[in-house]
Amino acid sequence: MKILVINCGSSSLKYQLFDMNGEKVLAKGLVERIGIEGSRIKHTKTGLEAVTEETPIPDHKAGIKLVLEALLDKKHGVLSSLSELNAVGHRVVHAGEKFATSVKLDTKVMDALKECIPLAPLHNPANIMGIEAVSEALPKVPQVGVFDTAFHQTMPNTAFIYALPYGYYEKYGVRRYGFHGTSHYYVAHRAAEILGRPVEKLKIVTCHLGNGSSITAVDGGKSVDTSMGFTPLAGVPMGTRCGDIDPALVGFIAETEKLSFEDVDFLLNKKSGMLGLSGVSSDLRDIEEAAERGEPRSKLALQALAYGIKKYIGAYAAAMGGIDAVVFTAGIGENSVAVRAAACEGLEFMGIELDNARNAIRSKEAVVSTDSAKVKILVIPTDEELVIARDTKRLVG
Ligand code: AMP
């Protein structure tokens, strides 16, 4: 069974083609700058060098057409005919409270996703465009939607409700939704496999730390709380997003800096976080380098990030009444030896003990806690595409 996984952004489209027989990636690629000058496709057939073609790509429909051509290419392609394609799985950011699991896409589901556009005005329209472009190009191929929010639908209302007038929840769906659900699901289940214990018996804190970051309490395989909220702005400091702040600061900054609401929104989403604190970059590698040169604001940014992670680990251990494992994943979680070490430092009192020699790894699965540690610490590279491919296979049979 061959499954194409698609992750559409507003001006980009990532794809992977899986052979589910052995769960092998046959090809993958990225279409960038859709609708902008300099648009291109970078395609890699597994085992060969990547090929890049710069060509006008006015919209997602044209992007999908290029992807299908690349998959059929004589040298770099992996399909001899599109009829070999059994299904397409899409990453969709927001399904509100409508879907708690992945679903096969039909007109009813599409209507529900369109209703969720006010909850994710930047992401859902791009996801919908991708689905519609595939429907046009491959009208007979079944499609599945896998939602970033779905895994968090098991949160109890005590964890998802905000202490605002209750009517806002009823009228507008104002509540915590949480994101990166596919990644949290994958690493929590993989951690259980690595530890050789049933996920139903484990209390795990999963730390997805990338350009966007979220931390989730996974109790018995289910999300019971997560650091992102109504939007992906909440939680620990991120590349350019502020994470948790006092909400009164929105009005204070608008008034003192004479900024519009849109300007403050932009400031909190694009100019804050690690970039705002360090003044150097949103990229953790640059900040680590600057901190090593002795830049005090970069040092502070790293310490603030580690402190934020540590506080969530403690909070979620309290929320679950204990903790068996902490998992680090995504760009920073998989690669930053220093952030992992700083986040775990001082948590020995609750059984979290990092082994510094084991922790000196990047981008590979490992248990990095000491043998005697009560709480296991794991590094697990995330694989959201594989979860999408598996769910798609399950739903299309
Ligand atoms: P992601 O959004 O998951 O792609 O993660 C992006 C973040 O991971 C950026 O802040 C990168 O600087 C960070 N990252 C990637 N590789 C490394 C590395 N080798 N060391 C430290 N941070 C890294």
Observed structural traits:
single chain, 397 residues, alpha/beta, Nucleotidyltransferase, domain 5, 2 domains, 8-stranded mixed β-sheet, 6-stranded mixed β-sheet, 15 helices, 38% helix, 20% strand, binds adenosine monophosphate
Structure commentary:
- An 8-stranded mixed beta sheet has the order 5-4-3-2-1-6-8-7, sandwiched between helices. A 6-stranded mixed beta sheet has the order 11-10-9-12-14-13, sandwiched between helices.
- The relative contact order is 0.11.
- Helix 1 crosses helix 3, helix 10 crosses helix 11 and helix 11 crosses helix 13.
- It is built from 15 helices and 14 strands.
- The chain folds into 2 domains: 146 residues, ATPase, nucleotide binding domain (Nucleotidyltransferase, domain 5); 183 residues, ATPase, nucleotide binding domain (Nucleotidyltransferase, domain 5, 2-Layer Sandwich).
- The chain is an alpha/beta fold and 397 residues long.
- The mean pLDDT is 97.
- The protein is globular and about 60 Å long.
- The structure holds adenosine monophosphate.
- Adenosine monophosphate binds next to helix 10 and helix 12.
Nutshell version of this structure?
The protein has helices at residues 60-72, 107-115, 124-137, 157-160, 167-172, 181-195, 248-256, 261-270, 273-278, 284-292, 296-320, 330-335, 337-344, 356-359, 384-396, and strands at residues 2-8, 13-19, 24-32, 40-45, 51-54, 85-92, 103-104, 143-147, 203-209, 213-219, 222-226, 325-329, 366-367, 376-379. By secondary structure, it is α/β, with parallel strands linked by helices.
